[in-house]
Amino acid sequence: MKVAIQGEPGSFSHEAALKMDAGAEILPCALSAEVFKALEEGRADAAAVPIENSLAGSVLEHFDLLLTHDVRVEREALVRIHHNLIAMPGVAIGEIQRVSSHPVALAQCRRFLAAHPQMETIAFYDTAGSVKHLMEKCERNAAGIASTAAAKLYGAAILEAGIEDNPENYTRFFLVRRAAEATVDPGTNKMSVAFALEHRPGTLVGALNALAVLGTNLTKIESRPVHGKPWEYIFYVDCKIAGPAEADLVLKVLKNHCSTIRELGRYPEARL
């Protein structure tokens, strides 16, 4: 299966793609919108996208892209995020003047960077991409923050491992496929749904109470603005399901409270 990711080989998205499909062929894309376009146009069979980080929160752009494309979530995976300071082989940590990485990675290494004020931080489009760039340019006074896999892939050296502020750093990823080709795993026990409500008091409470009456366990709720309709929102929920019958019942009861509803996928809950 060819799986599109945002970022370069060696990124955490690459790791997640292989965790969900060990034989995946990776299609790197610079932007998340390009990932979904590649999937939509058939240049990729699936996409591996981060949806939520345990420290930084939700990846909001990906909620929007899930809704605006005819796709379904087929699997999810949890990836432990280990950040490393990576540079060219033979470079000492005292030589580093610039550190580049994805903005989220930089934010998750604040303590380390604060302890090295001589290092200027530069936001880059991807963690692994920052290592690829410095190796291609032979920049001896620069470093990237990325995974161990990125260092190995690009022939770089890890100057300091595990520089993240918090060890409980995990990212949840979705494997997304075109809706017509998505399958439902027999072990499915989770589903994602997006819905909109009428703009009047009590509608959200009514929808959530209907799920509570069913005994359905919500594991996440997120709201996103409706484009072109100020102060109106789309709500995204993840919930546990006992099987197909409960999933169908969730959709049925929500329809009684929602102006629009869309199922985003059914899949097995990820385990560490």
Q: In summary, what is this structure?
A:
Helices cover 29% and strands 35% of the residues. The protein has 272 residues and is α/β, with parallel strands linked by helices. The protein has three domains: 2-80 and 169-181, D-Maltodextrin-Binding Protein, domain 2, CATH 3.40.190; 84-160, 3-Layer(aba) Sandwich (D-Maltodextrin-Binding Protein, domain 2), CATH 3.40.190.10; 190-267, Alpha-Beta Plaits (2-Layer Sandwich), CATH 3.30.70.260.
Could you characterize the architecture of this molecule?
By secondary structure, the protein is an alpha/beta fold. It folds into three domains: 2-80 and 169-181, Periplasmic binding protein-like II (D-Maltodextrin-Binding Protein, domain 2, 3-Layer(aba) Sandwich), CATH 3.40.190.10; 84-160, Periplasmic binding protein-like II (D-Maltodextrin-Binding Protein, domain 2, 3-Layer(aba) Sandwich), CATH 3.40.190; 190-267, ACT domain (Alpha-Beta Plaits). It is built from nine helices and 15 strands. The strands form three sheets. Strands 1, 2, 3, 4, 5 and 11 form a six-stranded mixed β-sheet that branches. The protein has a five-stranded mixed β-sheet with strand order 8-7-9-6-10. Strands 13-14-12-15 form a four-stranded antiparallel β-sheet, with helices on both faces. β1 (2-6), α1 (12-20) and β2 (25-29) form a beta-alpha-beta unit. The longest helix is centred in the C-terminal third of the chain and has 12 residues, at 203-214. The protein is elongated. 42% of the residues are buried. The model has no long low-confidence stretch (mean pLDDT 95).
